[in-house]
Amino acid sequence: MIRDRFSENIKEQMSSDEWLILEENYKSDENLKYESLFALSNGYMGIRGSHEDGTKNTLPYTYVNGVFDKSETFMRELAALPNWLGIKMYVEKQLIGVENCEILEYSRVLDMRRAILAKHLLLKDKNGRITLVEGMRFVSRAHVHRMCVRLYLTPVNYSGIVEIENIIDGSVINFYDAPRFKVKHTYVTANENLQKNGIYMEAATRDDHLHVGTGCYLEVYKDNKKLLRNRVFHAFGEQAVEFGDFHAKQGTCYQLDKFVSVYTQRECPQYEIHKKAADEIEKFMQDGVDAELAGHCGVYRVMWREANIEIEGDFALDRAVRFNIFHLMSAANEHEDRVNVGAKLLSGEEYGGHAFWDTELFMLPFFSYVFPETAQNIETYRYRLLDAAKVNAKKNGYKGAQYPWESADDGLEQCPDWTIEPDGTCYRCYVAKYEHHVTAAVAYGIYNYVKITGDMDFLYHKGAEILIETARFWASRCEYVKEKDRYEIHQVTGPDEWHEPVNNNLYTNYLARWNLGYVSPLLRQIEKEQPAVYRKLIEKTGLTKDEQKSWHCIKEKIYLPKKEGTNLLEQFEGYFDLENIIIEEYDKNDWPIRPKKLKHKKASQTQIIKQADVVMLMHLMGNEFSPAMMKENYDYYEKRTLHGSSLSPSVYSVMGLKVGDDSKAYRYLNRAAFLDLLNMQGNTREGIHAANTGGVWQTVVFGFAGVSLSEEGVLQISPHMPKEWERLTFRIHHRDSWLEIHITKENKVQTKLLSGKCKKVIIHGDEVIL
Ligand code: BGC
User: Nearest to residue 389, comparing CAs of 401, 407, 399?
Assistant: First the structure.
């Protein structure tokens, strides 16, 4: 049992192994990866799993979702905020830290059930003094402005004075270890005592001068007696430090609690921030860490009741799936509709906290089925930014609404046009210019969210308007080619970014066609059911019957490339003319090895692709293709997909099952579930791959459990359990009902109605009433 590595203080509360992710040794060059794996967030804010005592190789970032800044960098990105984790303990000037002492014992453990990060360190300093340091931290989900570090310190073979620094560090820099990209997004505006004691730092973003206040108070206890004495506050430039000390006796365990609170100007006026943080800490101290922790764990208990997936018989995979769910559900905000879920959650700096199509197509299905209120917030975020999407479209010469490829807080395009190569040359980045399918993803997300949740209110008052404006965008994006009497989309990039730009990317054309075709019947339905809503919509959007007719015409005549006389869908016009290279080797993690022929050739000259593209289309629009066609295309593209993006393996897993290739599906699920845990893409240090976390959930629920919705929205379950699994259990919301689903090794399905109305479900094709 992993918890046996800890002493009683922590052990008693720690969960069993299926909830725990262990770091067994401290390796400096692995530290950044663990900072991502051990990130904690509560939807409002996120912190990376950095050590309190500081290490050389570290990116100790705190983010508050929605606090963006650009300054001299390429785009608005989540600003790294003052780091409040710092606690340094010294004995006779020797820092008791992982990099200053000999490590005799080391464990850090993420307890996913309780959303805490625990540690056990037995450290020996240069003078031979041995100290046991254990502890845990959490970012409370019961009160999102409260965070806490609790440490237990035991001098094993000495007695003496322990000197402590309680630190907030305002000098943090985004992309700190990337010299060319480093940027400081904040400046310190206050560095002072919290109240009489304690520390407070206020920093503001450089562009918008949005203030963020962080307060901390540290106390040391023995048997409830407060021990910290000689408190002295220092403002060392951008560091706030409170010094204190206490006398420690050999063999005695002392408890240190660091109470932390963060508020920003997004929640209150600037002049109130300091007081808010101080009051919060005061209340937090009155309530006590134990009560807060109990509240926090209570919220997670409820969340896990909704979100947990249990896979019996496949322990490592069961835990890895849980790890993905943990990060996805932790980062999203159930209370706020001004924020989205960034491509790296709140766990790392890559992609600046921006939302991509990743949200709608990979994460939203999870939220719609598991946390519908969060899903609604995510959708409302897009509605709030509809006007900005219209500005984007206009700027680029189109009509309607064009959602940005990368979206932050203002809804304008955040994907840079230029970036810098390691040799200093500028590199033109064409992604935002050509990759337009995100606009279709937003539209599809609305359709899918409403289909799952039945949230007609959202559809009538927000979603329908987005669908009209996105259809308008696609109509203006398509070009009529007279000699062929068809509509085409030129100069476009599909999901596979290694071929950019191309003409007529099948995925994009199909989704544009879907969006254009979806709106008119929907409007007819709204006109019938809600005439007042319909009138308002038409008035607001100025949509005419003629415009709708033109959409119909484009939909009918849009070009969908396919190899003549075969079942093979062509990823884009001319794809089959490219050099036909296939993948032949796989590495020890079952990851495809780049074909040797690509050494002297760009992937764009060949049929090798970065990620699921045609297969992604079949994943979204399976009903459009016959089973034989899906199988043939899956086999063709699978041999040519290098999975250079984390958005790919999960889609190949779900689709592997659809085409009857169960063993491939299982292999792909393993790749997806362990993608970050085993750092399979080599960049976990930059944050958890958010889309993949949602993809993992989809693979289990839509793939192996075979959950789907019929055209009318009836829930269907047709599992294909892998031979490795004994039993699968999970819960989902569908419209007004909450269901528990058990699936046995033999694919027998038991469905229990946990709450809501009596319900029709189709199991293995047979109607069942619950
Ligand atoms: C992928 C995109 C994805 C982005 C953010 C890129 O590498 O190709 O499909 O949206 O990462 O996750």
Answer: 401
